[in-house]
Amino acid sequence: MDAVMDTVDTQASAAWVTPVLEITARGLNQYHKLEHFPVRIGRALDNDIILSDPTVSPYHLEIDQLENGQLVLRNLSQENGSRLNKHAFETATVDLDGVLQLRLGTRRMHLLRPDVAVQQTSVRNCKGLYILFCNPISALVLVVLLILGFTLENYVSAYTEQDLIYYMSEIMPYLLILMALTLLVVGISRLVIQRWEVGAAVSLSALLMLTPNIAGELGHFLNYLMTADWPLDNFSLLTNFIAWPAALYMYIRMVHHAPRWPALGIAVLFSAPFLGFQVSGWADRQLIANAYTTEANFNRTLSSTDIRLKPTVPIDEYMATMRADLKEIEQNDD
Amino acid sequence: MYRLVLLVFLLLIQPVWANPDGQDGRSERQVSEPSGSSSLYSRVEPSIYQIRVLDKRTGRKRSIGSGFIVARSDILATNYHVISAYANNPDTYALDYFSTNGDTGSLKLLDVDILHDLAVLQAEEPLGEPLETALIPDKGAMLYAFGNPLDLGFSLVIGSNNGVLNDSEGKNILFSGSLNSGMSGGPTLNEEGQVVGVNVATAGNDVSFLVSVQYLNVLLERLELRDFQPVDDLLGQVLRDLRDHSLDALERLLDNQQKNNWHASQIGHFTVPMRLGRFFRCWDGSNLLDKLEGLSVLSANCSNELDIYLDDGLSVGSMQYQYYWYEASDMFPPRFYRIYEAQNSSGMEASGSEDTVTRFKCHTGFIDVSGKDFKMTFCRRDYVRYPGLSDLLATGAMVGEKNQGMLFDLYMTGTDFERASELVKRMLEAFEWTP
User: Fold this and answer.
1) Alpha carbons within 13 A on the beta-carbon side of B334
2) At what angle do helices B213-225 and B2-18 cross, to 10 degrees?
3) Do B290 and B336 belong to one domain?
4) Which of A141, A231, B289, B387 is most solvent-facing, going by the fewest CB within 10 Å?
5) Cβ-defined contact of B367 to A312 (cutoff 8 Å)
């Protein structure tokens, strides 16, 4: 464990370079140029580099530079020790070739050469679908769409004529949910990227609320179109599975400038509870569909636009196909 | 046919049977005397029994009813529905009688008339004096119904005869007395102590029904010709009777249409067939639905009011259908269709269980009805133990009109699916759109 590690690399490759110490922190990293040696790192306030992490000892590590450019690392900590490239050490002499991983206690850091290539600058152009998130106008448009959409739904499902006041009060809960969702999103983002991105958060929240409704309407339309019940069930499931993670992914890419795979991962992770809920609903429906029932199951949707694939046929033709379809029922028939 | 001949024959000889001087030792002669109800009570008490269906494993009674001695001293008559549990599951249940003085004994099922809810049972030894039978007396005459209400003991209910219900298929007798469950299968006697009807049902409020004893006599006559041997394929016979009945009824209705005897009625913009035959009763439902703002609803429903009891929760022979017309002249069409769709989604309720009926299987399509498009669905389910009997459920909804809708719901139980669907097809063809 506490093996003394000797010189890692004997090649005296170093030209004289000023190492850079990168202390990784959630979100933004800290960088220190090591120009005056020896550099003492620890929690005590008289160190050259102060780390406030509780697992770091008051005097934890000393870094010195030899004349040939090699670095000498000396562990000063008795409690949690230091690790270089995952190996614990007391003293180590290294060449600064590439990236050296250091760990003091639980704090990770890297020793870098100043000429190490950095990531490409993340350019998030405000174009394509991303406009939804970066253009504040889109946030406004989405909110208006939300209000119109829900109000229309309320209008169509109200059985009697109602006043404007009624519709205003009906839309209130939805606006409150929108606010809460926005607050949640903007808050999380603020903590991570240290910026307030309200417009994008509004857009995301509005999109998350709109998708189930749009999926429902489309599903109903498809049900009538196909004269069947499976489109709505499966279609809405599909849209939610795709739409929510997609919206989240785009938000994270746009606002957090995260790379593709981490963004996707986070998007799926945060959608998981809602998607799990949908899947359990779907499973329940499958269970019911196969159970015995005295109810007759058939498509009962009606639509004012009457857009359908099944054509109208004369009664005789329907009777013939119906009789062929409904010949003697087997006990286990669906 | 056979039965009809018998019926006529029996109706002719009825008065002779009832005449004390007429017959051989087939039925014990009762000396008719003017009787008060209390002497009637004591006279007939020994001939009336409680009929019980017992669970073979526990020996406890599952259901009870009443029965009475008729035709021969070891023959009891009762309702089919009293013993249906036994008839459907003879391995699980047993039949026995329980007399007013505590005697019991086992019973054998000889024959049933499923259409009139009658059953004839046989005891192992002579039980007592058979009751005589007679024609129904005049309307308003006093009748005495006997039985065992709610397992409380032998009782008498007095009521008046309100005649035979000629406009219903079963042609039951309307009895204005309070029959109770437990009295099913018991006899209702005239003043002379002769059986004129068998207690079968009650609608509460002193409205009760009796099966005309003439149907019992037909059943007894049939048994007599077989020397009171039990029928060997009861299920088969029941099935045949039900199928014959259902096919007859359907043919009669189809025939009625050929003769232009279907009464048409206007519902919204449609003229639709309403009463299909004399056994149908139709009601208007328009005032039952709340009038929503801007939406007007007209509706009517018809039923043949027939319920042939087969088993617990299972009865057949009924046909009911309803029409609904919706119109909302100024309503935003998507809103109208929301309401319309909600109405379409509340369907007719069906009963049953996995071992009596299969699941419904449905077929949906769009048909042309008098120039209008209808979304039509036919559903079918079959009776597990009665092959050839099915339930037919038909639903139609008019589509294509922005502010008008028409719903047609029909449900037939225990029928022949092919013939029944032919009937529904003719009904649809009889729709007429009047702009």
Assistant:
1) 10
2) 110
3) yes
4) B387
5) yes
Indicate the burial class of A231 (C-beta count within 10 angstroms; 0-12, 13-18, 19 or more): buried
Cβ-based contacts of A309 with chain B (< 8 Å) = none
- CATH of residue B80's domain is 2.40.10.120
Contact check, Cβ <8 Å, A155/B332? yes
- What residues of chain A lie within 8 A of the CB of B378, using their CB? 322, 326
Of A300, A314, A326, the CB nearest to B344: A300
Q: CA A235 to CA B405: how far, in whole Å? A: 28
Bridge partners, B272 (sequence order): B265
Number of domains in chain B: 2
Same domain for B292 and B414, yes or no, is: yes
d(CA A217, CA A201): 25
A315 contacts in chain B (CB < 8 Å): 367-369, 425, 428-429
Instruction: Read off the pLDDT of residues B319-350 as tens digits, 9 standing for 90 and up.
Output: 999 999 999 888 889 999 998 998 888 767 78
Residues B367 and B284 in one domain: yes
* pLDDT (tens digit per residue) in A149-163: 999 999 988 877 788
Average pLDDT over residues A257-283: 87
CATH of the domain at B330: 3.40.1000
pTM above 0.90, yes or no: no
ipTM > 0.85 for the complex: no
Contacts of B338 in chain A (CB under 8 A): 156-157
**Inter-chain CB proximity A156 and B338 less than 8 Å:** yes
- Answer yes or no: do A310 and B376 touch at CB < 8 A: no
Instruction: Among A295, A302, A330, A332, pick the best mutation site for testing chain B contact (most B Cβ within 10 A).
Output: A302
Residues B126 and B208 in one domain: yes
Number of neighbours of residue B147 by Cβ within 10 angstroms = 30
- Expressed as residue numbers, the domain containing B195 is 27-231
| Domain identity same for B104 and B247 | no
Q: Least CA distance to B400: which residue of chain A?
A: A306
The strand pairing partners of B142, in sequence order, are B160
**Is B22 part of a structural domain of the chain?**
no
